[in-house]
Each structure stands twice: as C-alpha cells, then as structure tokens.
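Run folding on both entries below.
>entry_1
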Amino acid sequence: MTNQEKYQLRLKRVNDAIALTEPDTIPFIPIVQCFPYLQAGYTMADILYDTDVSKARKSLFGYLDAYEPDALMGHSYVNIGQGPILEKALPKTTRWAGMPGDVIDKNSIHQFIEFPVLEDDEFTQFFTDRSGWIMNRGMPRTTGLLEPFADFTVNSMGVYGSHSAIAAAVSTPEFRQMIQTLWEINDMSSALAPRLRQLDADIEAYGYPILTTGFAGVPYDGYSDFLRGTLDGLADLYERPEEVMSYCEEQLEGTLQMVAAQGKVMPGKHVFMALHKGMDGFMSDEHYRKFYWNHLQIIINAIIDAGMVPYIYTEGKYNSRLECLKEVPKGKVIYHFEEVDMVQAKKVLGDVATVAGGFPVYLLDYGTKEQVIDEAKRLIDACAPGGGFIFETSCGMDLAKRENVEALAETVRTCGKR
C-alpha cells in the first residue's frame, strides 16, 4: 500500500467516525504534545530552539514509525523553533523551556501567565479609543519589546507637520532598538514558517493526516484569558455584563470573518477550538448559555457552513454542559473531552456528534500496563458501539512511559476492529 493510500485509509476512518458510522477500526489519535520529542532523547528546550526543525522532524517521524496512529495531533502546540523569537519579543505572558534563567523545567511545555491587562478604570478608554488603549496599555503590559509604546501618543502632535513630530517620537534610542528587533523577528519568523509548513506537508505525504490545521476561539475565553484574567472576568459577568457582551459580540464578528477566510483555503480541514473557561462550576448554566454557548454554537455552525469540521476541545470537567453541546448539526462535529463521564457523554451526544478523548493520561505516566489496558477496553466498550468515537488521550502525553503507550496502541488496534 502506498503512502497516499495509507493516508486516504486513515482519513476515511476519521471521516467515518465524524459521520457517526463504524469505521473498519476505531481511529487511534493520541495527543502527542511533548511525547515524541522526549522519547527521541531531546529536551523541550532543544525543541524550542530547533530553528531548522531537524530535531522535531526526527522525533515525529520516529513516533509515527513506532506507533502508526491514524492522524497526528498536538505536535505543533509546543512552539517548535520559537525560542530565539521569544527571547527577542520578551512576552510577559509566557514562560518557555530554555528561556534565559531556566525559569521553568527544560522538559516542560510552555506556560501561560495570566493577569488582568485591562484594568478597572480603563473601560471607557477601551471602548472609545481601542487603538490608543492597545498601543499605550495592552502592548507594553504584555510584551517587553513593545514597552516604548507606553509613552507614545499622536494626540498632541497636531495635524500640520505631524510627520516631523512622529519621526522624532520614533527615533529615540528605545524606539530605534525596538524597530530593529521587530525587523529581526520578522526575518526569523519568515525563515521558520516555511520549514514548519514543509514538515507538516512531509508528514501528510508519509501517509498521516494532521487532524487540526485551522483555529478559532470563543469570545469570552479571549476576554478572560487576555484582557481581564479568570477572577475579574467572572466578576464582570455580574458587575459589568453589558461591557462583557459588547466585547464578545465584537469579537464574534471578527471570528466569523476569520472562519470564512479559512474555509476558502482549507476546505475539509478540522478547526481546533479549545474551550478554556466553559468547564463545570466556572459559571452558572444561565451565564454559560448567554456568554459562552451562545457564541460557540454560532461559530460551530459557521465552521460547518464554511466546509470544515469543528474540533471542540473541552478543558476541565464538562458533565453539566452536555445538553448544550448536543445542539449542533448531526454528524458534523468532534467533541474532545479531558474529563467527563464518557458513558454519559456517549449517551447524550452519540446520535449527534463524535466523542473523543477521556483516556486519562496519568495512567500512561504512572499506571501499570494492566491498568492502561483495562481502561482502554472500558472506553471502547462504552463508546465504540454504533460509531462516532475516536480514541484519543485526555490531553498531551508528555511524560508517558513508552511501554504504556505501546500497550495502549496494541489494545486499541486489537479491540477496536469492527
């Protein structure tokens, strides 16, 4: 069988599962994240500074040869080759393996540092002078490289002769250095991007679909993650609901435009959406429907209308949200679960959408082979009948034991055949 034939066979298994039918065998798609790189003997610091992508290439093809999954998922979430770029940008919201000072472990995935960027007394400016707020407040607070923008303003420069005033303002030593560094970042990014695209193209030519290539986000997640932080974002649902909704509606329009643009260049591809703040207990059912599901449902339908497949990655517990998730077109959506009652999820969603995930990664890290096998069989027995099931790990495998991943792959291949 040629690589192209293997690619089509694997893709058919995934598409059959999405269409709620039983493929010849259950699609096996662990979320790899750090696992291939660590198993190949590299640190994640090595991968973050792998600007020619050679270490990532060796790791990923070694993983594919060893486990023969039905698609590759999660390999690009680790910022391959981005280390030198991050060093120049100085993001205040990110910690990464290999960064100066070794702030996090050299084998850790990057860490997101959340804090309120939009402060309580800035909402009027945020909604009336968005560009000014982003330039003077948002960018300097989140990116060290962009701190010179904190004092940059054109309001006092007048109209006539403003070019001279602007020229002077951007010619300070700090601005000159910032602009030079931005040029360097652009050159580095322009060199890295085609190498990453070629890596993905070579993986698919080798016979393995890459499951998620498009991206979208829930507007409230953006509000909470990048503007207000988790605690202030939740308080705002009670204290300033009109402002929250105004921002979410604004972001929804931009997201729909982005989805439509992706559909023109990626027909048939899968669009990844991570649900950060929709988990059980984070907000009431009423707030979930109004501020979260309301927009998520619209985006899901837009992705489908654009000819793509929504891949919805639910983070945290999601037992109380299942009745909302079923309100989508039949046989068009993949729901991945980190932590949910998979029996109940299959019962509620099984005749509407594909369920995936639910296999606890901690068993691969700390469990025995027997525990891995038993849990895999339990999931297959509960979710495979009738189709609409993709076997995925709950999250990235990272530090999984090789022997446990081998046992998992063998169990799914043996027990997952129709």
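>entry_2
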Amino acid sequence: MATPPGPRPPIPPPAVAAAPTATPADRLAPYRAKRGARRTPEPFGGGIPRPRLFVVQQHRARRMHWDLRLELDGVLASWALPKRPSLDPAEKRLAVRVEDHPVEYADFEGVIPQGAYGAGAVIVWDLGQWVPLEDPRAGMAAGKLRFELHGHKLRGAWALVRRKTTGRAASRDWLLVKSRELWAGTDRVPGDESVLSGLTTDELATGVSPRADAVRAAIARLRPAPPRRPVALATVQPMLARQAERPFSRAGWLYEIKYDGYRILAGRDAGGAHLRYRGGEDASAQFPEITRAVAGLPCRSAILDGELVVVDEQGRPSFQQLQRRVQLVRPVDVARAAVATPATYFAFDLLAFEGRDLRPLPLAARKRLLRALLPAVGPLRYADHVETQGEAVFAEARRLGLEGVMAKRADAPYRAGRQATWLKLRGERTDDFVIVGHTRPGGTRAGFGALLLATHEGERLVYAGRVGTGFTEAQLASIRARLDADRRPTAPCSGALPSAQGITWVEPRQVCEVRFLERTAGGLLRQPTFVRLRDDKRPAECVAAGAGPPPPRVTPTNRDKVFWPDDGVTKGDLLDYHRSIAPWILHYLRDRPLVMARHPEGIAGPSFFQKNVPDRAPPWLRTVRVWSEESAREIAYVVCDDLESLLWVVNLGTIGLHVWASRVATLERPDWCILDLDPKSAPFAAVVHVARAVHELCEAIGLPSFVKTSGQAGLHVLLPLCGQCTFGEAKTLGALLAHVVAAEQPEAATVARALASRRGRVYVDALQNGHGKLLAVPFGVRPVPGATVSTPLDWSEVGPRLDPRRFTLRTVPRRMARRGEDPMRAVLSSPVDVPRALEALERRLAERTGAP
C-alpha cells in the first residue's frame, strides 16, 4: 500500500490539557445497548488495541450508507455518510456522528440478520492508517479534525468539520471534506468492492461471487481437466528458481518483478486462513492483515503462492521494515505494526481451488485463474507480468532500484524444488569502497575472513559494512599481503563499527569494487560480493551515494488558461487528466521517442510540432539522440518514462502526444503494425464495418488485432509485432492486409490515397509503418473540439452504437477507473508469426484477385 511521498508531519502536542476521557468500556455502552450478542455476528469489544486504525465500511441497511471510523482512545469514533466519500474537494459529504464501535469492528464483513439493529450486508470498503495533523482530542472538541488517510482507496489530507446548526443534530452533523492536494481528483471514483473479499454488498448479501463463479466456470472448461484431489497447505513444497547468467527475451516466457520480501504460501479452507514461510513455519499471527484478507477470499478453499512485502513511502518494497515486522513477538506490537507498516501480499500463482489441484496446469492458465479470483484493490495484489520482453523488464527493474526479475515458462507446471523453467535475474548494484580492515579467517580459509569497507561522507570516512564472499584463493593471499603493510592500531573510520575482537585495521589506501543488493537505512551493505580491486581509483573518489538527488517535481503554470473554449476545458484540466490516466498512457510512452504537438494558447491558437527537446529542459528529463536522414542531423527526442516527465511535457501546452512504433534500444524494429481507417466523407458506420472486416480477416489467419479510436473521426487497428521484424516487413504486412480488405469489401474500403478516388469509401492507410512514422498515443487527448481522447476499445464495443465523441478528457478517466484493465495493453506482449501471416495474406489476395 503506497503512501504519499514525503515524511508524515509530526502530531503537535495539545494546546491545553485534554479532559479525562471515558474508558473504552464506557464509550462502548451505547453500541452494546443496541445489539444482542446472540442476534448479530458483530464484535462486542475486548480486542487488541490498534492505534490510528481507520476503516470505511459500506452498509446496505434500510438505506445504503458508508461508515467512517477512526481509532481514538481505544475505540472507533464513527460517522455515517449517506454518500460515499468523494475525492473532489468541492463536494462536502454529510457525516453524522454515531455511537463509537469496538476496534475489532474494522475486520467485520458480513450480514447482520433481519430483526437485528442495522440489518443488512456490511463490507470493508477501505482500510488503513489515519494520521492526525493536529491534536485529535482538541479537534473533536472544537469541531474541526484535520488528518491524513493512508488506505487502499482513500489517501491524502481530509477534514471533518462540525456543522453550525442548532437543535438535536447540532453535535451530530459533520462534513467530510477532501483537501486540495496530490490525492484529490474530480475524475477519481473509488469502486464499490471490498478491499478484503472484493465483494459488493449485493454479492455478500446474496452469497454470489461473480469472480469465484468465473474461476469455477474457467476450470470447468479446461481440457484436460485438473485433477480432483484435496491439497493441504502444509504439504505443499514451493517451486524454486535457478539463477540465470544474464537477462534474456524469449517468446513463451513470462517476466515478473522480483519483490524484495518473504516467500509465502497462503491458503484458506473450512479451518480458516493460514500463511506459511518457504520452510514451512507458520506466519499467520505475524501478519494478521494478510491472514484476514486471505480469509475473505470468496471461495470455499484456495492455495496461493506469492511474496509478502512491506512498502516504503515511495511504494517500493523495504526489506528492513519487513524484518522489523518479523522480529515482533507480542500480539499488541504486531497489531500496532499491522496498521503503521502494513504488509502487502503479491500473489503470482494459484495452486489449488475448491478441491482441484491446479499445479499440473500451465503457468499462464494458473495466472489467468488467479487474476480472476483476486480483489482489484487491497492487501492482496495480483503480481502481473510481461510476456517475451525480458530485457526491457529487467532494465526497468534496474532503473527503479528493484531486486530483479523472475523469468518463467508460460507452459510450465508447478513442481517442487529448483526448476529450469523458473529463472532469477538479479538486479544488484556495484560501487567502489575503501578497505579499512579485515577479520580473522576461520576454519581452513587462508588470508582473511572478510574485508571491512568504508566510504567518504563529506570529510569523514564512514564504515559501510563487510564483504566476505567472491574471493579466489589467490586473491585471499595477495590482498592479505597488501594489507599487512598498512596495519594500524585504531579504526580509520567512524560510524557503527563492529566489535574489535578478531579485527585488524589498516590505513585507508586500497579500493575495491563490490556488488550488492542495497544499502540499509544505517548505510551498511546488504548481500555484498567482492568483484575486484580498483588500483585505478583513489580512496577520495569513494563517496557515499546517499539518498541521491531529490525526486523531480513539476510546478504547473497557468492552470486556469482555457484550452478548449467551446468546452470550458482548461490547461489545469489537461494536467489533471494526464495525472489520472498516467498508469495506462505511460505503458505506451515509455522508452519511445516522443513528438509533441504544442498548442500553448489552446486549440484555437497557433500550434506547431516539436521533435527536438525544448531549451531549458530539466536535467532529470530523459532524452535520446537519433540521426535524421531528412534533416541530416541528430535530433534529441524527449522520452516520457514517468509521471513527472509526462506532466512536464503537458505543461508546455502539448495537446497531442505522438510516439514511434519502436523503442530506444531497438529503433529499427517496430512493436506494432498499424492500419489507419480514415473516413473523410464516408459515414462512421462504414469505418465500423471496415474495422470489423479487418478483425475478422486477422482472426481467420491467426493474427491478434487491437483497436482504438483515433480521437477524431477514424479508428486505428494495431497488430502486435514485439520487435520481431523490420519496418519494411511491417509495411509489407500492413499493405497486404489493406489490399485484402479493400478487395473483399470494395463498396466500403479502398487503398486509394487521393480523395477523388475514394468515392465515399474508407481509406485503409498502411503507410504509417515506416521508420520514424508516428502514432497518436493511446489515451492521448486530441486538439479538437470536445477534447476527445484516442481510446483503446474491446472489439465487442466496435458496433453500430459506437460513438468516438463519447470518449473525452472528462469521461475516459472514469471509464478506466471502472474497467481497470486496458483492452489494448497486450499489443506490446502478444508476438505473432509474421512470415506465416504474410504467406496467408498472399494466398488470400491471390484467390480474391485471381493472380497466379
């Protein structure tokens, strides 16, 4: 669960001494008075304290409502909201103060029976930690409580403000308001599903889970069917990976991020939910938030395989925080940590489901079932993958400082032990360190046990840890001979020095290179391995990397400038759109040269295309130089790899992002072939007809195809190539497709470029497949009235009712928040057999035209 960047502000002390508060038992008296323990499954108190816990529960009682609950003084202070919490700062939600609830109510998800108080279904809509921005007791008394939420759906700063009313409701009616900051957004609408089970209140009430039903139906269709036999969690031995020598890209392989955490097998059955470490030890009590989420899966039984991590404030796995969690023993400490530093379980495999042993199935089939089962948000996450492009995934993992990548054969069954069908690609780092000492060798080892290392931090030499692996016998002897001449009685460095026993300190004159996984918060190396001595480096050059440069930040300018006069859409709206759509649009922007269509005064003002990176670009912006034959010079293109780069480009007044079909590392090999269906004077119904014809043709010859609106009047059909062929071959493929479609649909389609020759038909343009040709990026806003967006579609949407004007800057974020999955995403990971497709098209064209 990622939290907003930057440190959380400290909680200031109260300005005045707080009045004595009632005990939790006293505060729960109204709650208990309304409920009978024999009539409701709700908890009644007495659980372990969990300071700063918050929960939002959706409750389908007599009227649907949402309950916001904040832990304060051992109970959950509670407010009922008739409408769901809004991320729009302009919308103030009524929040009616109700009775305090016991802390363990945050785990309650179930159906309160008819006749009981509050009868109806209750789900855990969101869950996490709340951080008061001022003294919470004084805020409650004053009627204004400011705080941050760090949940799965609700994040950032909020305020509860008591309404200034009279009468009985004077102390009960509050307003919940979202602050204007990073996590605000008018287009962000959290879904209605539980973060634990993924169920809605209707599904919970009826006992029907579409996700579990989808898994059951998918298993029933499998041939051969997976065996019916019980699989006990305690008997499962995990599948392990071998080490790969180097990254590779290969069809038929899936590539996953290697998370820096603990391997965990998780299961639930009639006896409850359990977590087990790789060695078989039980982890259920140490991570109750994950155990509770596994128990909430909407099925009778299942066994998952995955990695359990704790993420830092940048959303990256932190092994140090995870280790601190594991060292906790007392239940009260575990409960506190589950709120303050919650774990996330990235599930990458489904081994068993409701009496079916899924391990004999191919990995790709198991992962499809797993994706269908898991909730969209919450403590359980689906560990996604990329097909074929292993080197690109590895490079991205290295760039992000992640541990590495797992490469897995898509057709591999699940087998215990180390298998060649699972490979580890480690993403370790290297740096240079000053040798400041060594330890005594142990056993039969000669020379020394480990080298002690340090780096310079300003004027100081600071201890950085030790390295004891990676040496040959000859190196042990030769390095020891060098160090013997430099002995000294005291340590030449400061910092967290090890015990002096068995240590020989030396003058800081020698430098070595070390490969390591990461540096801990204390600056010590984790999993270091000696690489070589660096006689070419001076000790003064060994400088601690520290925390690195500050993360880039873009300061928007002229947010109120109107860019679409007829629609009232501003530059600020354009920036907000790209911030909300970034998870999807960056998939197509990363690692590609970008051409910007700039409209600094909006769509009614002057505009121009810009290839070369603008002057005064920030130093952190990635650029790539490409030789242009047309210009007879190198052009420095912008490459948008992350959100801040995207916002910087948009802040220039860019309304139109156009990318190459190829990536920076493989500029001569495109990732897609495109057919641009250009209607001009043809009706849009004809465009739909031709698009369906293209799709049917591709289906007939076994060619995957994907479709998106152009953002204007046409449609774009893309065929995945995944860098397997040249631009020339892509152009040939596109031309053959276009000619076959035109021959088979002569009344609707044409390959005639001249307008006079089209005669009201749709032009099937395959000429956009050359080197340096551009694509209007999927999810890109177009500089036309209506602020329309080039939007990926399901083929099922391409029909008589399709209207591209419905996909706009305002509607597409809501569409993607609702859908989650981009229907065109696989265009970058579904390679095709291009020679086979070309042969099939040539045969079909010959049959149609009668050519020999």
